[in-house]
Amino acid sequence: MLKIFKVTAILEGISYLVLFANMLIIKTNNPELYHTLLRPLGMAHGVLFIAYILLAIILKKPQNWDLKTFGIILIASLIPFGTFYIEKKYLAHNA
């Protein structure tokens, strides 16, 4: 389960950055492409975000994460590059 969480954390972080790139770069250069990509990219990111949160909740007890660690793991999903930090700091040594 931890390995699935690690992969989800990385994919969620990538999808977040791709969604930002779509909003910031593609929107200004190619508005038609922006609108074409917005829905599938947004949906993929949303599914990965929900999976990340649910897996974090499921793994809280087996990983013995205290409330502070659990909070950091959850908040990291809201910050660009945050899930990469979590994967490196909290998950790398546990797999």
Question: Would you spell out the secondary-structure blueprint of this structure?
Answer:
Blueprint: H1 2-29, H2 31-60, H3 67-76, H4 82-91
Describe, in short, the structure shown:
The chain has 95 residues and is mainly alpha-helical.
Residue share in β-strands: under 5%
Head-to-tail CA distance between termini: 10 Å
Morphology: elongated
Average pLDDT level:
90
Number of helices: 4
Give the number of DSSP strands.
0
Uncertain runs = none
Helix/strand order, N-terminal first: HHHH
Structural class: mainly alpha
Oligomer: single chain
Largest sheet: none
Number of domains: 1
Helicity range: over 70%
Radius of gyration: 15 Å
Pfam families: DUF3817
GO cellular component, one term: plasma membrane
Protein name: DUF3817 domain-containing protein
Subcellular location: Cell membrane
Can you put this structure into words, describing what you see?
Helices cover 82% and strands 0% of the residues. With 95 residues, the chain is mostly helical. Helix 1 packs antiparallel against helix 2 (31-60), helix 1 (2-29) packs antiparallel against helix 4 (82-91) and helix 3 (67-76) packs antiparallel against helix 4. The longest helix has 30 residues, at 31-60. It is elongated. It starts with a helix and ends with a helix.
